[in-house]
Amino acid sequence: MTALATAPTARTRAAGPVHAVLRLQRGVLIVWAVLFTVAAGALLWAYGPGGNAAAADWKRKCGAHGCDWSAAITNYHLAYAGAEFLIGVIPYFATALAGAVVGRELENGTARLAWTQSLTPTRWLATTLAVPAALIATGSTVLVLLHRLLYDAHQVPITWSWWNAETFIPNGTLGIAYPLLGLAVGALAGLLQRRLLTSIGLGFAATALALTTLGFARPHLWPWATSTGADYETPRNVLYGDGGAVTSTGAHIADPMCRDSTACLKAHDVTGFYSEYHPASHFWPLQLVETGIVLAVTALVLAAAFTLLRRRTA
């Protein structure tokens, strides 16, 4: 009696949704890896050897009568300014990524092929966005932590303008929220246009509009601090808002621009002046309120994208 041994047939396991997304998006994810590495490297260099060299030159060459900027100090500022620029680009990169992937797959018909095989349209979109969202959110979190590490170290004693968008956004939770908004906007643009290039163009325009609008609204998201006195008295390193004159009743009016004339000030009932500003202590209230708005808008954009997809594939 002869025993026949049969070799087991090799079975290839179908690639899962996550693996498929990584394969389709490997090009843009490589770009993301390069962008993250350059930004993180610049921040670490500025915190470490670059910051140490700049601080040493500052102590040696700068004093009460001015400062002779050295190459080390210049390179330190170029490093953190370049890193801030790259972090500011991330929302637009996320927009382009989502718009390109969604628009391309709809344009080529690969999305419809996936829907007929194993994925529902809703799961397809969720998987397409989940992988880059996780990678971009994780990387952005690391960059925000590195930026805060450098900002708090303050090796070179030059005041950072904490309210400038270039510093304000990457220094807190907005550095994580805005890329997620960009990803959602890009996905909606891709579903609306269903073409690669036009999806990216529409997404860029919408993301720029959102960032610009919220940037203008930012100073008004938290009550201003107010100081009053015989003249304008505004502390240093603050975001200045408005100012004017104070009457004897405590009312705030426009500055009559005649402080050198006692008769003019008396005619306008001016007893002092006021200034409105945001001190550095308002950083986190402003940051968290705007972050909440950005996340709410992100949720609305995602809801619109999924609703649009379900209606078109019903």
Notes on the protein architecture:
This protein is an alpha+beta fold and 314 residues long. It has a four-stranded antiparallel β-sheet with strand order 3-6-4-5. The protein has eleven helices and six strands. A hairpin with a 4-residue loop joins strand 4 and strand 5 (252-253).
Concise synopsis of the structure shown:
This protein has 314 residues and is α+β, with helices and mostly antiparallel strands. Helix content is 65%, strand content 9%.
Q: Determine the N-to-C terminus distance.
A: 61 Å
Shape: flat
Structural class of the helix and strand makeup? Answer: alpha+beta
Strand line-up of the largest beta sheet = 3-6-4-5
> What is the number of helical segments per DSSP (H or I, 4+ residues)?
11
Rg computed from alpha carbons, rounded to a whole number of angstroms: 27 Å
Query: How many runs of DSSP E, i.e. beta strands?
Result: 6
Write the layout of secondary structure elements.
Elements: H1 17-24, H2 26-47, H3 49-61, E1 62-63, E2 66-67, H4 71-108, H5 110-117, H6 121-153, H7 165-168, H8 174-193, H9 196-217, E3 225-229, E4 239-247, E5 252-253, H10 262-267, E6 270-278, H11 283-312
Antiparallel strand pairs: 1-2, 3-6, 4-5, 4-6
Helix pairs in contact: 1-6, 2-4, 2-6, 3-4, 4-6, 4-8, 4-9, 6-8, 8-9, 8-11
